Amino acid sequence: MSRKEAPAGTSAEFKVKELGKGGAWQAYRSLMYGDMPLWKVLWAECLFFFLSHLGGPLGLMLRMKLYPSLFRHCGRKVVFGRGVLIRHPHKIDLGDGVVLDEGATVDAKGVSNHGITLGEKVYVGRQSTLYCKNGDMRVGARSSVSAHAILFSSNDLELGEDCVVASFAYILSGGEYDVNDPTPFALQKGTCTKGPTRLGRSVWVGTGAKVLDGASLGDRVVVAAGAVVTKPQLARAIVGGVPAKVLRVVDLPAPPPPSENAPPC
Ligand SMILES: CC(C)(COP(=O)(O)OP(=O)(O)OC[C@H]1O[C@@H](n2cnc3c(N)ncnc32)[C@H](O)[C@@H]1OP(=O)(O)O)[C@@H](O)C(=O)NCCC(=O)NCCS
Asked: What is the pLDDT of residues 15-43, one digit of tens each?
């Protein structure tokens, strides 16, 4: 797969540091809310100020009742743990039964992106971060992102249904600077990308593993703990090491329908 610049309107022309030109309030508003209308920004600020760190069942219940008004779409029975950080909620869709556990961050930042979509019953663990830099992200139904994992998109990141991402894993779409450009990396206009990163259905990414930009994974791929996946991998492969190589391919029929699936570990 050849390296290409991110398409116009995405990360190539997007720099977080340039968001906040025009004073502290404008910088804060750009970073947290982008083009969200002012009345909604103020409403969000009130909710976050009073409810974000409210403990116990009262906090949980009030966030469950009032936070949904902030999102582009929010399904039924969505749970927001204490200290959940939401940025650009007007570009976030949450399916029924999504759980954002304590301290999770969901940030759909960008100027021309669609944002983040979490399917029904997606679980985002404690202190995990899902964030965009003008990219898009979709996480399929029932997928689970364990504590301290990171999903980043400055291009297009997709996880299929029933995936498990273990703690401290990092999955990227985009996030590559141009090593052939003499400009210092921090001053480059934006990041390059090899193309979208797509994980199929029922993929398991082990603890501490990294899945780099463009390294799409077929259905039922297992990424061993600590692996760094640099290239696309075919369905049912177990891959491990740095860079990741195929350890073996599991001979399995297609995954069972969702109702028969065991809950994620
Ligand atoms: C990869 C894994 C699933 C085991 O798969 P498996 O096919 O049963 O593997 P085996 O234990 O039979 O080992 C097969 C080979 O892979 C190697 N291997 C296993 N885990 C590895 C890893 N993390 N990195 C590199 N190589 C690994 C083994 O050393 C063995 O090599 P050998 O044939 O040269 O002796 C497991 O080791 C793993 O990494 N699990 C992730 C656990 C995790 O992150 N859990 C978080 C909770 S969701």
From this structure: 656 655 678 999 999 999 999 999 999 99
Residue 77: how many other CB atoms lie within 10 Å: 11
Distance 201 CA to ligand 1 centre (A): 20
**167-206 exposure pattern, b = at least 16 Cβ within 10 A, e = fewer:** bbbbbbbbbbeeeeeeeeeeeeebbbbbbbbbbbbbbbbb
What are the distances in angstroms from CA 258 to CA 103, 203, 206?
A: 28, 14, 21
The DSSP symbol for 197 reads E
Distance 224 CA to ligand 1 centre (A): 5
Token pair, residue 134, equals 């003008």
CATH architecture of 24-176+189-217: 3 Solenoid (2.160)
The residue nearest atom 36 of ligand 1, judged by CA position, is 224
Measured CA to CA in angstroms, residue 67 lies from 3, 46, 137, 259 at distances of 40, 11, 21, 29
Cα within 13 Å of Cα(128), Cβ side: 26
Q: What does the pLDDT read at residue 13?
A: 46
Tell me, in angstroms, the distance from the centre of ligand 1 to residue 222's CA.
Answer: 9
Which atom of ligand 1 lies nearest, measured to the CA of 206? Answer: 44
For residues 204-224, give the mean pLDDT.
Answer: 98
Give distance in angstroms: CA of 226 to centre of ligand 1. Answer: 10
Asked if residue 196 lies in contact with residue 202, where contact means CB atoms within 8 angstroms, the answer is no
User: Does position 6 have pLDDT exceeding 60, yes or no?
Assistant: no
Q: pTM here?
A: 0.90
Q: Relative to the CA of 224, which ligand 1 atom is closest?
A: 39
Greater confidence (230 vs 6) lies with 230
**Averaged confidence pLDDT in the chain:** 90
| Domain edges within the chain | 24-176+189-217
